[in-house]
Amino acid sequence: KPRLFSGMQPSADSLQIGNYIGALLQWKQMQVSHDAIFCVVDLHAITVAQDPRELREATRRTAAQYIAAGIDPELSTLFVQSHVPAHPQLAWVLNTLTGYGEAARMTQFKDKSARQGTDATTLGLFAYPTLMAADILLYGAQTVPVGEDQRQHVELTRDLATRFNSRFGETFVIPEAQIQKATAKVYDLQEPTNKMSKSASTDKGVIWLLDEPAKSAKKIKSATTDSDGEVRFDVASKPGVSNLLTIYSVLSGRTVASIETEYAGRGYGDFKTGLSEVVVETFAPIRARTLELLDDPAELDRILARGADKAAAIADATLATVYDRVGFLPRA
Ligand code: TYM
């Protein structure tokens, strides 16, 4: 089976449905045909300030949501990044192969650092993409399923792998991003030209996986649409309605065309009610299962420990090869 790697940052209260639609849903499907490894990337999370207690809790909550959304820890490897020290160890080596200008061109870094100002921007944030490259390369992953916003980071990973291979000999598999066209980017409900994101300016634009059903329904009801009243997919002139159609289609497994036909001539009220039902049907069981898993943190921690053992076995072997190739003296 081809190897697959992907990860997500721990989120304090809940993941948002962009994470589910852009990533988790694909993960769940692909874990059957791939040797899949999924990580909760807590080392990445601390590139912006975190409250220690909340981070620990968020890491568990995120792992619980992976499982509740359908990641099977028997079938896939599920672990926490900080449990496998090879990640920052390889990242250090990759840092020494990465140009300053090359790292400074990463759009996520440019956006985040512009928002924070230079003094609050850390070296850790700057080095975020090389840690991500280490995540992927340690496992020899061929496939990296992500949303559109991670494409550039996977490109950098390919460049670094190629560079290492040509300098030190064939070592790394060159990975490929797998980005589902239709769901590459889920947009904010209030500002449907912005990506849905946990750092959105208003909570009303974001549906959280663990939102109570009534709350999600209310957010959908107040989602930005337009004044022409027609349920029709047209991203350029109807971004709000098109985003809702995408969400509807992906969650219900129906085509956009069949949804357009169902709501032809019926206006946005009915359409939003229909979408709310689909959202609640999808996420109510995930929410219930997450809360159940969080009731037994010891069991969850055992699952993550088993995952870390499996991951470390692969990662340590890759790191040993890398250390040898770059010329580190083996410890006697
Ligand atoms: P993160 O935690 O920001 O997001 C996790 C995944 O969710 C996708 N995503 C979206 N997809 C569609 N629409 C949206 N609005 C949306 N918001 C988020 C992201 O594209 C991502 O796939 N750097 C990564 C985590 C990471 C990683 C890795 C991923 C660390 N190491 C190695 C793959 C391989 C990140 O911050 O994702």
Automatic annotation (TrEMBL):
L-tryptophan binds at residue 135. Its EC number is 6.1.1.2. It is an enzyme of class 6 (ligase). Its main location: cytoplasm. A motif ('KMSKS' region) lies at residues 195-199. ATP binds at residues 9-11, 18-19, 147-149, 186, 195-199. It catalyses: tRNA(Trp) + L-tryptophan + ATP = L-tryptophyl-tRNA(Trp) + AMP + diphosphate + H(+). Keywords: Aminoacyl-tRNA synthetase, ATP-binding, Cytoplasm, Ligase, Nucleotide-binding, Protein biosynthesis. It is found in: Cytoplasm. Pfam families: tRNA-synt_1b. One of its GO terms (molecular function) is tryptophan-tRNA ligase activity. The keyword Ligase applies. InterPro entries: aa-tRNA-synth_Ic (IPR002305), Rossmann-like_a/b/a_fold (IPR014729), Trp-tRNA-ligase (IPR002306), Trp-tRNA-ligase_bac-type (IPR024109), Trp-tRNA_synthetase (IPR050203). Homodimer. Belongs to the class-I aminoacyl-tRNA synthetase family. Catalyzes the attachment of tryptophan to tRNA(Trp). This is Tryptophan--tRNA ligase. It comes from Conyzicola nivalis. The lineage of its organism: Bacteria, Bacillati, Actinomycetota, Actinomycetes, Micrococcales. The gene is trpS.
